[in-house]
Each structure stands twice: as structure tokens, then as C-alpha cells.
Amino acid sequence: MFDDKTPQRTSIAQLGEFGLIDHLTKNFQIGQPSTLKGIGDDAAVLDFKDKKVVVSTDLLIEGVHFDLAYMPLKHLGYKAVIVNLSDICAMNAVPTHITVSIAVSNRFPLEALEEFYQGIALAAKQYDVDVIGGDTTSSQKGLIISITAMGEADHDDIVYRNGANDNDLLVVTGDVGAAYMGLQVLEREKQVFQVNPNAQPDLEQYTYLVERQLKPEARKDIKPLLAALGVKPTAMIDISDGLSSEIMHLCKQSGTGCNVFEEKLPLDPQLINVCEEFNIDATTVAINGGEDYELLFAIALSDFDKIKGNPNLTVIGHMTKESEGLHLITRANMKIPLKARGWNALGEEK
Amino acid sequence: MFDDKTPQRTSIAQLGEFGLIDHLTKNFQIGQPSTLKGIGDDAAVLDFKDKKVVVSTDLLIEGVHFDLAYMPLKHLGYKAVIVNLSDICAMNAVPTHITVSIAVSNRFPLEALEEFYQGIALAAKQYDVDVIGGDTTSSQKGLIISITAMGEADHDDIVYRNGANDNDLLVVTGDVGAAYMGLQVLEREKQVFQVNPNAQPDLEQYTYLVERQLKPEARKDIKPLLAALGVKPTAMIDISDGLSSEIMHLCKQSGTGCNVFEEKLPLDPQLINVCEEFNIDATTVAINGGEDYELLFAIALSDFDKIKGNPNLTVIGHMTKESEGLHLITRANMKIPLKARGWNALGEEK
């Protein structure tokens, strides 16, 4: 609805499967020294030398994970890469390679796929990852995207979910909730558009939220930042499924409880304004919203001075003994059990 | 139609996304020494030491790549793994790891997914590969499977598509065409079943063909076999997209032509009988059929004595100068241009 669709329509069937792959991937550059062979054989060949390899994969389905009514294809390609790189960053590793597979119904002309791959290529360039393979096929319905991301790290740098200790501080990068409210704004504009297709959406006061939804970034900067600060997290996780559910994962796998302080949650001023406009509680959005590609991690209390005041990092609480449970301490100093109502592609609460 | 569907139906929504992943993957064992961390964090962590890493990925869509009318889910899970391992074997590498992502519509009960994952687990066990990650989500229509396979090899063992020379011999493993005719048999039985649901298919005389279609194997045995024979192929490729199209890939990337001899094509006797019954030319099936997870490779002429008489390997022709083109020499000694009409998921000839 917001993108200016080009009138050109070249049928993908004209190119054939191999022609299509060649066409879409011909501009991808190989930049990683570890890539010995990228696209063009039965498999890519990589040489990680003495680095450890991290691998993550995600499947994105039209109508479940994205809506092309307000998601331009170039943004979608970019975001599909980011979603996967975020998981690599959450291991405190450096993203290096991705494979990109798509299935498309014949309603997509070649030009649409080109736009999608432009987004893939842009993300690959920005994040310095090589596109080393993939598959292109037809779907019975809609667009299906499957990306596998790989990264590398020294053994001692890798951070798992299960290493947090009682009394560790709980830290989140960036701010939370904006991507979810960006989606609410876009959903509202879609309703308006359906009633009046001539309405021009005015998104000026929502730019940050919409950008967080449509063009998120992965926190590739956190690994070097933490290294520069001399801090190694004890446990780390990506919070794209929702802050509260990921706090629960971190605590469960580390065998800890936690106290999270409502007043410490990092909220963008635009989020607060728009939550008021939508009459939604900003704290609920912040802890349950999801799609913020930020990192949540635990650090030793003794490292507090090293991160204090860094604009990228916010201490939102601390770990406790497992027996104490998981709690949110409200502004009114009420202690309430932390509940996960994270985003769930299977459509129900956990 | 052939499988005995269990009447149990547990809704996958009851489990939730994380519960579902936990449930389906809880029995997967880690066997590879290179797996430092499998399922359960943001990403798996692997240590390949001084081995090179090969990576391949495939996307399988219900209604495009498989038909659940005659493909039992356990077989489908098994085959989905094989499809990917075959690409690893085609690099002369050893498969080590897979990620498995699925999207399912809500018509699939939990028991169906369990059956599918039993097939995944069986293949993983048989081929000694670790399932190290994946994603489980809902689809708008049908079953979607995305698998990424990884393998390892010493640098000097890896075989690409582009190393064949003029005068090299062209060798294929196993036999060709059977998987395609197995599909024709199953399609015919499906038609019969649709007319008369009480008809019991008698597949006794088609067992080999049907097995090649429903439960193919990847040629993990070829790497050690060639090593034992003291032969390193100059170029290699998986022929699951059809023998002729893959011969063309091998020649194009190696900069050669070739002569392939019709009388040398390895055909199973059951294939010949069934092609007669179906009134289809067996040579056409053999070179264009596809879905035979066999390997095609080139070797130096001087290595002929080493492979001669091996029941797994058949010399089907030889490379020529590129300028001589690609030809099939018929039984009647006619030289006709080799054409690719390989399997193409986008539905047209290349």
C-alpha cells in the first residue's frame, strides 16, 4: 500500500529455476575470507580455521510473519536477514554467511523478487555477510522465506543462555516495544486504506516506530562494544520473541529467578506518546511486544561500573535465586509475577 | 492412501511453539564430536577444527515437491533429509549436521508431526548427522519443509563441478530412472484410488521403483569407496534434478563437451519392465527422470582400471572438447544433441 509498485511484470516461469537463481544472485559479492566457494555448486565451501561456527535458521511465512500490504519487498528481504543475524549476535558471534531460500506463488513477477533480493543484498552488504546458497521454488500460496545464518567466534567469546548467576545484572540493548507499536500503526493505516484507498497515510509522528517494524537492525555492534568495555556477559539471548518470554528463557536455562523494574525499561518517547494515543499500557507493550531485535544479557554485578551510562545498554533488573521466582517490580513498588505473552507463530499463549 | 492413519489428533496449538519444538526434538541425540551445542540456544555452536565446511539448503513444498496422498509422513521426513545430504555427498564431503524447519497448517495434528520427525530422526541416525536447530511455525496452506545440511571434508578431498577435463570418463553411481517411474506408479494408483477407494494397490512388481521414490538413500558410501579405490574425481554433482541437466552443468562449469552412450546407462530390470508396461522410453526416463539421489562424476582416463567392474559405478561416457558439444550416442549409433528436460519446480523446461 505504501510502495510504488512498478508496472513491469516478467513471469518467473520465463526464466526457469536455474535461470532465476542465477539472475537473482548474480550481483552478490563474496567478501568473507572464509568463503572458499559461494553459490554455484552442490554446496558452499567454507573455512573457519580455528574459529567456532554458530548456526541459526528461521522460516518466515506470508500472512503469518509478514503482511505485504505494508511491508515493501525490499524491506522484507532486509528484515528477513536481520531476523537471522540477530540470533548470531545473541551468541556473541560475528555473522559471516547466509543461505536464502524462497518459495513464491506465480502472482509474484520477477521484478518483485528482484526488489526482495535487493533488500537481501543490502543487508548482506551492511552486515558484511556472504550469501552462499539457497533454493528458489514455487509455492501453492504466498511467499515463504527460509534463511540460515552462520557466524564465527573464538571459543571463549561465545555466550550461551545458561550461564547467568544469582545477583547478576540483567541488561537490555537499545529500547523495547517500538517494533510492536509500529505494527499497530501500520495495521491501523491498513484499515483506513481498505475503507478509503485514496487516503494518504501521514506517518510523520510514527517514523521511529514504523522504522523499527519495517527496517530493524541486528546488534552486531554489541560484541565489539562489550569487548571494548572489557565485559563478557554470563548469558545472552535475542529478545525478538518478546522481552518477558526471553527473560524467562534466560532464567530457566540459567537456573535463576529475577526482579525486573518497570521504571528501568528503556522506552522511546515516541512509544510513550503513541501508547497514550492507542490507549495501550506502554509497559505491557515493552515486555510482551516482540520484534525488537535487541539483546538481553546478564553480567556480573562487579562489571556494573564498566557499562554504567552507556547509551546502548540499560540495566533493567537483576537475577535472584531460582526459588525466588520471576517478578516485575512496578512503579508503585508492587511485586507481580512476570508472565510471558510473547509473540507466538502458532497463535496462542504459552 | 497407503498409510494407516492413527485416529489420534492432538492440536499443535495446545503445545505452543516452544513446547512443540521441545516435544518434537527431545529424542534427538548429539553424536558428532564437532557439535558443541545443538538445539536450545539462539544458535548451535560447532567446531570443525581444521576441516572445511560445506553447506547446502533445500526447500520442499507440499503440492510442488511431494504429495501426501502417497507419501507417508515418516518417509517424507526421511527423504527430506536425504535430499540435502546428497548435496553434501556430491562435494565428496561427510554430512555432519542438519537444521530442520517446518511450517504446517492446522490440519496437521501433533501425531502427524511426530511421524514426520520420526523419519527425520531415523535419517539422522542412519547417516550419523546431528539435528542442531530449526524453526516450527504455522503455514497458510500445507506443509513446508526447509532443511540446511552441513558437512566436513579435508581441503584436498573436496570435489567441485568445474574440474573435469577433455577425455575424462563420466561415471554415475547406482542406477537411474527408477525414482521417476516409482512416481508414475504411485500417481496411477492414486487415480485408481480416487475412482475406487476400496481398491487395494498391488505394488509387488514395483517395489524397487516405489522404494526409490519413497525412501531414497544418499550416497554417503561413495566417498570412502573412492578413497579405498584410490580415485579422486575431477568433478562431481548430484543428479537428483535429472541426469541430462546435471551432465550439462558439469560440462558447462568444466568447459567440456561429452559423449554419453545410451547402451551404458545403468537401468534396473524392473525399470525396463515397467517402462514397457507404461509404454515410455526407458532412456528418456533414465536421462530426464530426476529424483535419483545418485552422483555423477568425472575421473581421469588413467583411473579406469581402478573402478572397472565395481557394481556401484558405471562409466556412461566421456568428456570431449567443449567445441564438440554434448551428445547422446544411441544404440543405433546415432549421435544426437543431449537435451535437458530435468525436473524443474517452476514448472517449465530450461
Report on this model:
The structure is a homodimer of 350-residue chains. With 350 residues, the first copy, chain A, is α+β, with helices and mostly antiparallel strands. Mean pLDDT of chain A is 91; it is low at 1-6 and 342-350. The first copy, chain A, has helices at residues 16-25, 73-89, 110-126, 178-195, 207-214, 222-229, 243-254, 269-278, 282-288, 304-307, and strands at residues 35-37, 44-46, 52-61, 94-104, 130-138, 144-153, 169-173, 235-238, 256-261, 295-299, 313-321, 326-329, 335-337. Chain A has two domains: 12-157, PurM-like, N-terminal domain (60s Ribosomal Protein L30, Chain: A, 2-Layer Sandwich); 169-337, PurM-like C-terminal domain (Phosphoribosyl-aminoimidazole Synthetase, Chain A, domain 2), CATH 3.90.650.10. In chain A, helix 2 (73-89) packs parallel to helix 3 and helix 4 crosses helix 5. The longest helix of chain A has 18 residues, at 178-195. The interface between A and B is large, with 77 and 77 residues.
Defining traits:
homodimer, 350 residues, alpha+beta, 60s Ribosomal Protein L30, Chain: A, Phosphoribosyl-aminoimidazole Synthetase, Chain A, domain 2, seven-stranded mixed β-sheet, four-stranded mixed β-sheet, 10 helices, 32% helix, disordered N terminus, disordered C terminus
Helix percent band of chain A: 25-40%
CATH class membership of the largest domain in chain A: Alpha Beta
Number of domains of chain A: 2
Mean pLDDT value of chain A: 91
Write down the oligomeric state: homodimer
Radius of gyration of chain A: 21 Å
User: What is the CATH topology of the largest domain in chain A?
Assistant: Phosphoribosyl-aminoimidazole Synthetase, Chain A, domain 2
Q: Tell the overall outline of chain A.
A: globular
Tally of alpha and pi helices of chain A:
10
CATH architecture of the largest domain in chain A: Alpha-Beta Complex
How many beta-strand segments of chain A?
Answer: 13
Helix- and strand-based class of chain A?
Answer: alpha+beta
